[in-house]
Amino acid sequence: MVGSAETGKDAPLRIEAMSDGEPATRVSVSRARRRQRRRLSVIGVIGELLITAGFLVFLFLGWQLWLNDIIVGNEQNHAAAELANSWTSGNVSLNQEDVPTNFGEPVVTPVPDNAVTFAVMYVPRFGADWVREVAEGIGVGDVLDTKRIGHYPTTQAPGEVGNMAFAAHRLTYGAPFKDINQLQLGDKLYVQTKDGYFTYSFRNLEYVSPRQVDVLDPVPQEGAAQATDRILTIMSCNPKWSTAERIIAYSVLDSWQPISAGPPAAIASLASSKG
Amino acid sequence: MYGALWEILPGPAWVKILILLVLLGVVLFCLVEWVFPWVNSILPSQEVTVDG
Question: Which residue segment(s) compose the domain that A28 sits in?
Fold first, then answer.
């Protein structure tokens, strides 16, 4: 019984030992083949290149639509805050309680040449530290793609009665107006120039065709009507991933205060301490 | 291609992985710093303005 069990164990071993040579050579041949295939296969290299290209496209999309907007947004916050600080440094009254609340008619800040930055915009709804530069003109290459907000040259200047219209990207290039559709009735939008702070109150959103230029009228869409309000019109593309429509956000001037009066309380930390 | 790269790299596996991570970092940096901005500049830009 014991002997036959031993032979039962031994038998397969012997068979393996006997046929040892053949499988070993097969293994080494297939290893060599695999190595050859790794180094030489054109199809394999093309395949790997294609997979790599696919990854690169994904990486680019992630960079363009997400990462770069964060990086550029931070840069822009910093640049705009610095500019605002250069206007305020030295002549800000720190004692806010003594400052009167009515400063009469707003000072009109004249707009500069094309592509020159002349204002800074604060919109708490777009983020607690959201600050962006506003430049003259709506050229794609010289203003909008430089991550700034553009001012329509045909529209009014800050402080002037009528309509002041801004445009900016909603996606990519820092996407200044990414959250334009999040504005809610009464939200404050602040525009600061070298002369003062203009506080606007958001009224309503509108969706129009890209050809509807009457949103830029002194009284939007009213043509020859005599303007009495100071309106801020900001716009971007809509829907978010398309250029089929434009999203328009209208706001009306609530109040203004000269630089010497200091920034409105809501943006005080951004307007004076940074930079 | 990547198989050949793995075999060309010297040292034990962990050294190879370390070298690959450094290479990957360099490649990513070049992409973000130069290649992606360049690609972005030749892609058509989005229109956001109204225009008769």
Answer: 2-40
